[in-house]
Amino acid sequence: MTPTTPTGGSRPAGPCGEHREHIADLLASCDDYLRRIRRTLQGGHTSRHYVTEKAQALRNAASSLLAGCHDVEGWLRQCGDEIIEDWDGEPSITECELEAGHRGPHQAGSQRSPMGVATDAGRDLAGAAQAFSDHLDWLAPRGCLAPDVVDDMPQLARGLREVTHALSKATRALDALWTAPRDPGSSDEEELP
To answer: Which of 24, 73, 87, 97 has the fewest CB atoms inside 10 Å of its own CB, making it the most exposed?
Structure first.
């Protein structure tokens, strides 16, 4: 039996559908960093700096894997019906990227919902905050008055500005999410946290 989408189209079997290879690549990246750390720890001449660097890379790869899983969830919820578009007189086949079971005509191209914008803004904020935290962690053991730490102050200030910018962007996205039109049958009380 071939699995089907909510609208009746067929999809490859498995929890990731046709995106299985995408998730497998992200998982392989995590596995690669884990193997590097394991080899170093078993090798006898362990460099704490190398292990720390690879542990951070592993965390970043794991974060990418999680983001990839969320992306696949979104992709699998898309309608996916084929649309024939006209590109300078040539027919081009694309897929409808609206949610499965949508009302109205099919649409190609990325249609960003307020939730999608808020999700991306949240990811950006998390990434900026994590990068800033990593920089502080790297500087902390050397002390605040070390000459090279003083030289890092402009970089820290830039990192803090990036976090502030990402927070403003996330706040705007959440404000837009709360003011987005609701389905006629939904209640505001059900959707508020």
So the answer is: 87
Q: Token pair of 137, please?
A: 């962690």
pLDDT for residue 186 is more than 70: no
> What are the pLDDT digits (tens) for 97-114?
787 888 888 887 766 677
Residue in this structure with the two tokens 């209640």, named with its chain if needed? 187
186 phi/psi in degrees, rounded to 5: -95, 160
Is there a contact between 153 and 136 (Cβ–Cβ < 8 Å)? no
Specify the pTM: 0.60
Spatial contact of 10 and 2, defined as CB atoms under 8 Å apart: yes
Residues 6 or more apart whose CB falls under 8 angstroms from that of 5 comprise 11, 76, 79, 80, 100
Phi, psi of 92 (to 5 degrees): -130, 130
**50 contacts 40 by C-beta, under 8 angstroms:** yes
- Point out which residues pair with 78 in neighbouring strands: 99
Q: Give the C-alpha separation, 80 to 73, whole Å.
A: 13
Give me the residue spans of the domains in the chain: 15-76, 78-111, 112-181
What is the token pair recorded at 119? 């999700």
Cα separations in angstroms, 61 against 33, 71, 74, 85, 132 = 8, 15, 20, 37, 18
